[in-house]
Specification:
The structure is a single chain. With 291 residues, the protein is of the alpha+beta class. Helices cover 20% and strands 36% of the residues. The protein has 7 helices and 17 strands. The strands form 4 sheets. Strands 1, 2, 3, 4, 7, 10, 11, 12 and 13 form a 9-stranded mixed β-sheet that branches. Strands 14-15-16-17 form a 4-stranded mixed β-sheet. Strands 5-6 form a two-stranded antiparallel sheet. A hairpin with a 2-residue loop joins strand 8 and strand 9. The protein starts with a strand and ends in a 6-residue tail after the last strand.
Length: 291
C-alpha cells in the first residue's frame, strides 16, 4: 500500500474531490483526502494524502495559507466570484494605490467573516449551498479569521491583484467583497490561486497530467513542516508508540507539546501530545499496531 503526499497544482474546473478521485485510480489507493478545499474556478496548491497519510490531514488543514487573487470592482455576483450571476453594480470612485493599501492595513489581524451561502458548511444538518439551490433562507454563521498579510500586487483597469496569507476557514471571495466595500464599491473575484501552505509552494507541485509515482512524498517529510519529528531511544519505547501507549516525559531533554514519533527509517509512527497528567499521550496512530 502506497502512503504519502502529492503536491498538486489544481487546474480550474476540477473540484478538490475530482482530483482525489482521479488520484485514487492512478495510484490504486484505498483512502485519498486533501487539505483545504479549492473552489472549482480556483487553481493552485492542493495537498493530497494517500492511505495512512490521510490520518495527518487535520494537522495540515489548520495551517496558514497564501493566495493570489484578482478582484474586479464595480460588479457583485451571488457567489462572490466569476461563476455567479451579477446581482449589483455600483460606480467605482476615484481610487489610488494608497487607498487600497490603507484598506489592506485596516484588515490585518482578526476579522469576523460571514460564511457564504455557496459554501459546504453545515447548518441544521444541511450544506449551505443546498439552501442556495432551493432558494431557501438560512441564517449564515459567522467565524473569526486571521489575516496575517495583505499585499497589493497590481492595480489596473478596475482590477486589484493581491496576495493574502490567511488562517484556516478564510473565504478569499468574501475577503474580496469586503475590500471592495471598504473602497465604497462592490466587486467579485475573477481569479484565485493558492500558492503556499507554510513553506510548501505550488512551484513544487504537478498537474494531474504530469503526475508520476516518484512524485509521492513520504509522510514524515511533509508532516515535519507542521510538527517536530522525534526518534525514541530504544525498541521498547518504539513498540509502545506502535501500540499507542503512553510515553514518559523523561524521554526528551525538552518539554514538547505535539510531535510525531518516527522510527530509524524515518517512517511516521504516531502523533503524541503532552498531557497535564504527566506523560505524552498518543492522539493519532499513523503506522502502528493496534493488537
Amino acid at each position: 500500500m502506497k502512503d504519502g503526499f502529492l503536491l498538486i497544482d489544481k487546474e480550474s474546473d476540477y473540484t478538490s474531490r475530482d482530483v482525489c478521485n482521479i488520484i485514487a485510480k492512478i495510484f490504486d489507493a484505498k483512502k485519498v483526502g486533501h487539505a483545504g478545499t479549492l473552489d472549482p474556478f480556483a487553481t493552485g496548491l492542493l495537498i493530497v494524502a494517500l492511505n495512512n497519510a490521510t490520518k495527518t490531514l487535520s494537522y495540515i488543514e489548520g495551517q496558514y495559507k497564501t493566495y493570489e487573487a484578482t478582484l474586479l470592482l464595480g460588479k457583485k455576483t451571488n457567489t462572490g466570484d466569476l461563476t455567479g450571476e451579477i446581482i449589483e453594480t455600483k460606480e467605482i470612485p476615484s481610487i489610488s494605490e494608497t487607498d487600497i493599501e490603507d484598506v489592506f492595513i485596516s484588515l490585518i489581524g482578526e476579522l469576523e467573516q460571514t460564511v457564504p451561502i455557496t459554501s459546504a458548511v453545515h447548518v441544521n444538518g444541511r450544506k449551505l449551498y443546498q439552501y442556495a439551490h432551493l432558494n431557501q433562507e438560512v441564517e449564515l454563521p459567522k467565524r473569526v479569521i486571521d489575516i496575517e498579510q495583505l499585499e497589493l500586487l497590481e492595480f489596473k483597469n478596475d482590477t486589484i491583484r493581491f496576495k493574502a496569507k490567511v488562517s484556516k476557514g478564510t473565504y478569499i471571495r468574501t475577503l474580496g467583497e469586503t475590500i471592495a466595500e471598504r473602497l465604497n464599491t462592490v466587486g467579485h473575484l475573477i481569479a484565485l490561486r493558492r500558492t503556499e501552505i507554510v513553506d510548501l509552494n505550488v512551484k513544487e507541485a504537478k498537474t494531474i497530467k504530469e503526475l508520476k509515482e516518484t512524485d509521492l512524498i513520504d509522510i514524515s517529510t511533509v508532516i515535519s513542516k507542521f510538527l517536530p519529528l522525534k526518534k525514541l531511544p530504544n525498541e521498547v519505547e518504539l513498540k509502545k508508540a506502535r501500540h499507542g501507549g503512553k510515553l514518559s516525559l523523561k524521554l526528551f531533554n525538552e518539554k514538547l507539546d505535539t510531535f510525531c514519533v518516527i522510527d530509524d527509517k524515518n517512517t511516521a509512527i504516531a502523533i503524541y501530545k503532552y498531557s497535564e497528567i504527566g506523560y505524552y499521550e498518543c492522539i493519532r496512530g499513523i503506522n502502528r499496531e493496534d493488537h
